[in-house]
## 1
Amino acid sequence: MVVNKRSLLIVCSCILFLAQCIYVIGIFTRKPVEVAVEVTTEIPMNTTTTSAPVIVKDILPGDHITEFIPPFVPLLNDYVITENYNLHACIVRKSMSQLTTNLMCYLSNTALYEDRNRTLSDTWAARKGSCDNIAWSAYAPLYENGTMSMSRMTKLAFIRHPESRFVSFFVDKCINTNSCYGCRDLHCAVKLVYDRLMNHVQNRHLIDQSESELWWFDWHAAPQTWNCDFYKHLTDYHLIKIGTSQKDRKLAMKQLQIALKTANVEDKYIEKIMADTLVSDTKHGTHQSKSNLRILQQVRTDPYVRHYLHRIYYFDYVAFGFEIPEVYSADLPEYPLRN
């Protein structure tokens, strides 16, 4: 009887072990999900045929963890440093990059900035020439002579909600400037972004400053975790999460105020920065445009778009503490079992 129980236990254990093995093998060999997506064909103006919905089959990335864009791929470091305050700001594309630069220009030479009647809402073109004493370093955060070190600097970066950041990217680059390799609709854009970023992941490309034009698209579309050497210094930063509403901006300004006080910036300059930032909005900004609102609505309701964006920016939600949208709650990445 004892032998039979022991044999039964061994058999059950073997069956359970085999089931786990089959599950793990299935995860790594799973085929992408095939999804039918309805689109509308574009009919030339000189034809009498009316446009009609057609079914196009597209192979979407699955739910295994390896089909999500991973965090902390070191794609780009774009720093601005002010020697006056030993202050270091990392510029994250499509995340208040102009505001960051204007802020650092102002602190580098407050008198010059005010004499030239510059504001924190200046665009790139308007600000040109107002940053004479600023230190730029796109690939290393130190002066060439080594007088400043990363560990001794107060570091800050503006972080934006992944959803609104992508909408800003799409409206600005794909609609306003037509810089998305011909993509003018969200379905095309999300797939293009996913494929290009996954290509970086699989091939581990390194940034080549001489070929910056080839990387320009990816700099703006990549997850925010790919910036600023966050894979090494994430916990060292004052991360300022900034939104588009006045309430969000006020909360962000409190975080910015803490960072500036840590860097020993004088109160009179902090007060000016707080006041100007709450009312500033660069002409380059897109969040108040009608296009932005229309695209944002599609991002929140289109299953195809959500499917890709979830796999592109999931780890931005996790790394920076954003609440994961409820629509993603049943679509989290699956991890292989561990022994």
## 2
Amino acid sequence: MSLLIWLKTGPTPTSSPSVPGLPGPANSASQKEAVTTQAANDAVEKVLVTESRKRKRGEYFNYDDGIRAKIARYAIDNGVTKASRHFSADLAHNVSKTTVRSMRDQYVKVKKQLGCDTTTLARSPRGAPTLLGAYDIELQDYIRQVRVQGGVVNVRTVTAAAEGIVLKNDRKKLQRFGGHITIEKSLARSVLRRMGFVKRKGTSANQVSADRLPVNSGRVPGQGEQGRK
């Protein structure tokens, strides 16, 4: 049975996403991937369409190892504030001083270990097992698809997608069904951080709620999602 026929007649109805920027199940490489994509889309669409927002929430951006090194070296030579302004203009989105400072500090440590400058700066490794297990990979694949489609990637949408994926594939693992998994904002931040996404602030409000904190703050290296509250 072809994937297209299965999408029309299979036990789980699938449809094109109603929100721009979400991946279409019809483009999936397998039936399982199509079902997973549909479940994640349904959860994300519910969040984006039915829940009102008091303020615009920021998105996350991914920096490759070369850009991270350039930002860090510029900050060392010119200061964090100038580096933030320079790369915000150069990359056409806000590069916060917190992000720059984190890269600078990491670069200093790496340079000390190597004994010389470097043109690449890899993200810090995370050694703890993931809370979602195999579904962590599926969630990351979905996030990449959303990003490719130009969709919104933030804590709220990632949390919704994770909930939808686990609920569809193995709901017994969720705490409310007797399992050990609780889908919280800390889990979404962990996934985004491990993928290399950093926060772009969407407002100049003085008070920032917990789910708007930059993903590169407050994390102890090697600590898994279960260790964060």
## 3
Amino acid sequence: MAPAPVGGVPVQPVTYRSWAEEWVAVRCTACGREDQWPRPELGCPCGTVLRIPVREDGGTGTGTALARPAEPSVPEAGPAAGPASAGPHPPGPHPAGPPAYIPLPRTAASPRPSFRPLTIRTAHDAVTAAALYLRWLGFEGVVRAGEGTEGAPYLIDLCGPEVVAQVEPTTRPANVRSVECLWLNGLGASALGVFFSLAGYADDALARADDLGIPLFVMDLTGTPRPVNGAADELVSTGA
């Protein structure tokens, strides 16, 4: 189930993010249940975020769901011919219908289970989602180190024995200074620095992170980080 996009309506850039406006009510067409879902967005590593318009009916979005295929009807068996038949036989067994889903064969062993994200509604949720992702990558002992210092109120760090992470939960793209500060923190702790941002990164920050080998991730409101540079892709492939 997901919000249904509206065709022919231009997308809008997100210049100000409000947590209350990032959710849309969607009703499941199969069971009728109504729940809150994040509005779909399209992000770019340059920092631009576009909001995709979805269909709303009186504040309630329209969801789509897979309906269970109808079971084929089988006529009941009539009385059997012959002298031994004393009455009608009970209905015969229904033949098994085609499966609704056929899984593809596994071609390679999964190195770890699928990541289970945490929906982001607040800045605290963003930090928690980043911590869960680092643990999923294999970093142990990841805890909250603090919420920054004076002069950098949005600096939120996570640390572990082998990793130091920074989370930027605002709508401003992370700048090159933040990337360099994270790199210095990693050097001081003899740990890998990992950066998470909700609004992407400035161009000079992307280039500097590539030079320093800092993995960069962009998180959406579902709490799923997405790698945006080569160092992040390599970290996802190899793990901690």
## 4
Amino acid sequence: MSMPGWYPDPAGGQGRFRYWNGSAWSNETTANPSDPAPSTGGGGGRSSGRDRTFLIIGAIAVVTVLIIAWFVFGNRTGGFGGNVPEDTNSSTPTVSGWDETSSPTPPPTTAASTIDCPITANKDQTRQSNDGRLRGGGISVQRIAGWDDYSMYLQWVSDLHTQEDFVRTGWMSNVAVGQLNYEDGFDSPQISARQSMECYASSGYYLNFTERIDLVDEATTISGHSAWHMRSEVRIASPDMPEIEGDVVDIYVVDIGQANRMGIFFSSVTIGDDARQRLVDDCIASLRVD
């Protein structure tokens, strides 16, 4: 899946790069994609008093010109109440430069979800132990040796804990466990697994998405608890990574028998990467309810 980083500016800035943090594009751009990530603070600094003075003078000048133009040309056009052609431009710009003959900049993925992926407010955090297992959402898996802990963000998942392994610059494989909360609208493991696959495939982790091919969509059990498993190929076509076809994504949603939450497991492995897929399959085999 795509990692946060600098990518060619989707707004079309020639030779410019814009930062993708996994959920949104930055306001800042750069000509050097090796620059550090921009700060997550607000917009630019406050304008100086001198700047404000120039703005006020400029506004007064514009108003003065408009008043003079009204007196000079008003009678020729029937005044402001005459037959003036309708302004069909929108009140807000659709692309930079107010060029309303252009199409708006597309979102970072063409895999628009047909469901409304919620943003959870749940702040649960499972304490990680030293027993070699990755825990979250009431479930756990055996950690993969040599893979690193990673702070991943999925807006609809809480208590998310992840391991990742770099495949190449801009691309990685991962395993993760977390929590789906009933208060966010999730229901059965089946529906929740399908919703989560749709949200995941349409997230910013899959820039240049082309298609999703579902390979497995079936009921299963984990530690005697009802669960649902989906395996899909999430395919991309990136000009910067032509050798990457996409990921094999596995999702398990497990009814852990609690009234407020379910456990969820994610994994993503580059299509055709048999060695990493075997590691992840072994990890999946260790999935259990704690």
